[in-house]
Design a protein that fits this description.
The complex is a heterodimer of chains A (418) and B (272). Chain A has 16 helices and ten strands. Chain A has three domains: 183 residues, Periplasmic binding protein-like II (D-Maltodextrin-Binding Protein, domain 2); 139 residues, Periplasmic binding protein-like II (D-Maltodextrin-Binding Protein, domain 2, 3-Layer(aba) Sandwich), CATH 3.40.190.10; 35 residues. Helices cover 44% and strands 14% of the residues of chain A. Classes of the chains: A alpha/beta (418), B mainly alpha (272).
Amino acid sequence: MKRIVSIAIAALVLFSCVFSFNIFAAEVGEEFDLSQFDQDYYSKLKGKNITLYVYNWGEYISDGSEDSLDVIKVFEELTGIKVDYTTFDSNENMYSKIKSESAYYDIVIPSDYMISRLIKEGKLAKLNYDNIPNAQYIDDRFTGDNCEYDPDNLYSVPYTWGTLGIIYNTKFVDEEDVGSWDLLWNEKYKGKILMIDNSRDAFAIAEKLLGYSMNTENPDEIAASAKKLEEQKPLLQAYVMDQVFNKMEEENAWIAPYYVGDYLTMYEKNENLEFCFPEEGTNLFTDALCVLERSKNKEAAEMFINFMCEPVISAENLSFIGYSTPMTAARELMDEEVANDPNAYPSADILANTQTYIKLSDEANQLLDDYWIKNIRVNSLNVTFWIVVAVVAVAIVVVVFVAINAKKKKMAARNEVE
Amino acid sequence: MSKNTKFFTTIYNIFIMMFFYSPIALVMVYSFNSSKGFEWTGFTTNWYVELFNDELIMSSLLNTLLLAAIASVFSTILGTLAALGVYSLKSKKLKTTIKTVTNIPLLSPEIVTGVSLMLLFTAARISTGWVSLIIAHISFCVPSVFLSILPKLRQINRDMYSAALDLGCNTRQAFTKVIIPEILPGILTGFLMALTYSIDDFIISYFTAGNLQTLSITIYSMTRRRISPKINALSTLMFLLVFIILLISNVYAIRKERAKEIKISQNLKNSI
């Protein structure tokens, strides 16, 4: 027994050693020319032993995989600042961590509506733009009054942006049916339609289709949208988030609303997929870099933001992620194919027809969630509930049956003895 | 057993095995797929290289393993002591009470444990990170150790201990030479259970980890976009590691059993 324990422990230690030493590790950034950056600026905080805590979406930075540039490593080598990088899966979960203060972060990268919520609650620090000279590269479309969630970009610098639209498979979907959000309600494609599993986006789609604002707080309009979403349910194959990739690429489903950056990833796998900006208009989202009020290293954090706004870095980073860059200067450095993609960088007409999410009032949010949970997503819950009941019932019957049988046998045995 | 029953047993076994192992097999196969999707586009070991180069996954894996090792060692010690203490209690009422209380962390939903621990740490001003995470993991690992040792203790013949004392052991020797070897399988099971629970846990870690990121949190955060095939590669490696450990321990157990049998038969021969 002792030997097993020691073998197990040895294996564990070996396993962790191999992993921690990174036997395959290659020095990324060696071939990347660091001298192109402003050395005076970036060496300001060298040798001060600073660690920056960065909290970002999962799979949302160029990390050196698939021959991309390891952006964080380049930053560390350039500035001597260590980056502690961790990831989250949704704005709401990120928010709960910030709100509970159970973790310390310097930089977070939330989406627009979450940024306005964090600003209102005083969680974000005002940026000192003297430390972020590269903010000049950000396109006018994202600055000043155009930035609805954070006017004049006092608290945030755009990281990526994109739109929501309909992805469809040209092999199965007739071109004449495409063009409006009502494609997602088309009886012809029953069972081949996917819906986004996220209340805010789902309601935005229904609200746009009915001609409302996607930031509406009017209870009647929200109720009508909920009804619309309920009507859609029988036509749907499933409510999905990340499963959308496989379902669409494998042609299990033909129609799905999703983000344009992810459409480009799918298109690489399946060229029959096409993206459509519905004529009713759609959502334009921005994810932006923010410094938290609690941050103890604001200057270093601003240096990180400035670094992410280097056109070269933004170009490398966003070519990897597949989302769109808010900087024309960066776009010009990208591969022509990516930079001129009409879906990633739609025309001014289409952009004029977009709307950003802003923070809804608590009541409206509550209403949305109530409808979403009780009326729209409820059926799947109900089915699960009854399955559970059925399984438990069967289990009880089996147990009772076995118990009775055992007792009978015992009785029989006793009778025999007697 | 009739031929027919045997046939159905085999079919049933195959079906169950497939149900258990086909997902793992699928993950293993796709860890060698050159594309990111489910379409087979060619063989590659690239994901393994990328896996070892991915600092986020590697550091969270290291965190997970270190955490599991520390938490399971501590909870094995704590759980063993607790089991011994409860076993030697005289009052039956107290015994049942303690057993019930230890069961609570196993029965209560993880989300409740997670949130309440988070609130506790915030209220007690314990900074979240390694300390809070280790405390949280120990708290849900101890019951599994406790519960796997208790039955072993019940199997011990109490007279053995007194016999050891009669034969000249002091109490400490009697404990290490009689009690510990008897319950060692239970301790080991408890340790492995604790290790698995700790590696497995997502919800409690999520609430108590602070800035630390364990493997399960890293994987979960990938779900907005797409879970990287690197995770398939990692799962394959972890499965193989566990498989090898199990294989070694089984082979070792079989050998030991055989050695015992041979010894017994030799003794028999000698006595004849």
